[in-house]
């Protein structure tokens, strides 16, 4: 556990260009969420679900990062900024993944476990080396391939092959002739 947490600190130092020292790395906003998650996940796996959930609730209150203790996070995961990141219970995040702020790895339904088969997942699996841009939302039991890039504000609800780049929107040429005139003033 200590080695994993030390590796998390090294990851912040290596991959966050704003970090210039060990002291700054230790003050990285998402590190406490990662540290607590690693402990909470171990407790969750050993059946101490309530304790694990209580730890993650405290971490969320402090960091703004919500990671369910049942979620599996790989090594060298960088959650940059951490603000408003949500990672659901059956999500799996591979090694060397970068997750920016306001990313959601969520489910598409509200049903309880008794409405699904044992072992069936509700949340995404993110392959190693993937990047999830600011505000990206990945919903359901989809697979994001290794080294895929999910752009800022993208909504993903289908599998993404390895190495694929997904963008949220494409800029269109603006034509004033085709836009309706709207006036909000009387």
Q: In terms of topology, how is this protein built?
A:
Blueprint: H1 2-15, H2 22-26, H3 31-45, H4 49-63, E1 66-67, E2 72-73, E3 78-79, E4 86-87, E5 92-93, E6 98-99, E7 104-106, E8 125-126, E9 131-132, E10 137-139, E11 143-144, E12 149-150, E13 155-156, E14 165-166
Keywords: Acyltransferase, Amino-acid biosynthesis, Cysteine biosynthesis, Repeat, Transferase
Protein name: Serine acetyltransferase
GO cellular component, one term: cytoplasm
Short note summarizing the structure:
This protein is an alpha/beta fold and 186 residues long. Helices cover 26% and strands 16% of the residues. The protein has one domain: UDP N-Acetylglucosamine Acyltransferase, domain 1, CATH 2.160.10.10.
Task: Tell me about this structure.
The chain is of the alpha/beta class and 186 residues long. The chain has one domain (2-166): UDP N-Acetylglucosamine Acyltransferase, domain 1, CATH 2.160.10.10. Helix content is 26%, strand content 16%. The protein has helices at 2-15, 22-26, 31-45, 49-63, and strands at 66-67, 72-73, 78-79, 86-87, 92-93, 98-99, 104-106, 125-126, 131-132, 137-139, 143-144, 149-150, 155-156, 165-166. The strands form three sheets. Strands 1-4-7-10-13 form a five-stranded parallel β-sheet. A five-stranded parallel β-sheet has the order 3-6-9-12-14. It is globular, with a radius of gyration of 19 Å. The model is unreliable at 182-186 (pLDDT under 50). One of its GO terms (molecular function) is serine O-acetyltransferase activity. Keywords: Acyltransferase, Amino-acid biosynthesis, Cysteine biosynthesis, Repeat, Transferase. Its EC number is 2.3.1.30.
